[in-house]
């Protein structure tokens, strides 16, 4: 069947069956290949995208069930540059395969998590533990999220959370 999805602010027409996964739509129909498939069974987090602002695993989400706007790594606007840069500055990736999923999970936290938890490294690591890095970049990832630049970004996003989500659903690629 044909359905419409809002992806990175664009209304996209896609063809799905009852078994089509969101990741297949993103990668194969919309050419949004930043979303990576690792395990394919919901265990590694490399396929994480935001659906209605919530981090979700696109490999176990049926496209036909998606009713909220989808944001992929390609859809994060310039406000999230400090997050991307922090991963680079703190060695938060090596091969980079898990990185889009890590960044989308982190973006979801920056948008929604209580501010006073975001500077708690133990809590942050627990929140991120569904995203596996085979290169064992966890110290670098934690360092990126604890950095002054990312903590400042969280505070800025918190000043206008609804504006962030509105903008994320209105981005033009
Ligand atoms: S590919 Fe989706 S959780 Fe591993
Ligand atoms: S950077 Fe290689 S899997 Fe995470």
Structural class: alpha+beta
| Number of contiguous helices | 7
Classify the helix fraction into a percent range: 25-40%
Radius of gyration: 15 Å
Low-confidence stretches: none
Biggest β-sheet: strands ordered side by side in the sheet: 4-3-5
Beta fraction: 5-15%
CATH class of the largest domain: Mainly Alpha
Could you explain the architecture of this structure?
The protein folds into 2 domains: 2-75, Ubiquitin-like (UB roll) (Roll), CATH 3.10.20.30; 78-159, [2Fe-2S]-binding domain (DNA polymerase, domain 1). Helix content is 40%, strand content 13%. It has 7 helices and 5 strands. It has helices at 22-29, 81-89, 99-112, 121-127, 138-146, 148-159, 161-170, and strands spanning 2-7, 10-15, 48-51, 54-57, 70-71. The strands form 2 sheets. A 3-stranded antiparallel sheet has the order 4-3-5, covered by helices on one side. The site of one FE2/S2 (inorganic) cluster has 11 residues, from loops.
How would you describe this structure in keywords?
173 residues, alpha+beta, Ubiquitin-like (UB roll), DNA polymerase, domain 1, two-stranded antiparallel ribbon, 7 helices, binds FE2/S2 (inorganic) cluster
Question: How is the topology of this model organized?
Answer:
Layout: E1 2-7, E2 10-15, H1 22-29, E3 48-51, E4 54-57, E5 70-71, H2 81-89, H3 99-112, H4 121-127, H5 138-146, H6 148-159, H7 161-170
Antiparallel strand pairs: 1-2, 3-4, 3-5
One FE2/S2 (inorganic) cluster is lined by residues 93-99, 133-135, 137.
């Amino acid at each position: 069947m044909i359905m419409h999805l809002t992806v990175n602010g664009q209304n996209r027409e896609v063809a799905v069956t009852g078994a089509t996964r969101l990741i297949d739509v993103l990668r194969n129909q919309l050419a949004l290949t930043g979303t990576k498939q690792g395990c394919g069974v919901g265990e590694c987090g490399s396929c994480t995208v935001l659906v209605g602002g919530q981090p979700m695993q696109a490999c176990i989400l049926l496209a036909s069930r998606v009713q909220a706007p989808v944001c992929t790594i390609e859809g994060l606007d310039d406000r999230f540059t400090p997050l991307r840069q922090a991963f680079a500055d703190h060695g938060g990736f090596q091969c980079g395969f898990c990185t889009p999923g890590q960044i989308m999970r982190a973006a979801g936290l920056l948008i929604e998590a209580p501010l006073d938890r975001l500077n708690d490294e133990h809590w942050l690591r627990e929140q991120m533990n569904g995203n596996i890095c085979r290169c064992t970049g966890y110290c670098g990832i934690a360092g990126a999220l604890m950095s002054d630049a990312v903590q400042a970004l969280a505070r800025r996003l918190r000043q206008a959370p609804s504006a962030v989500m509105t903008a994320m659903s209105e981005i033009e690629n």
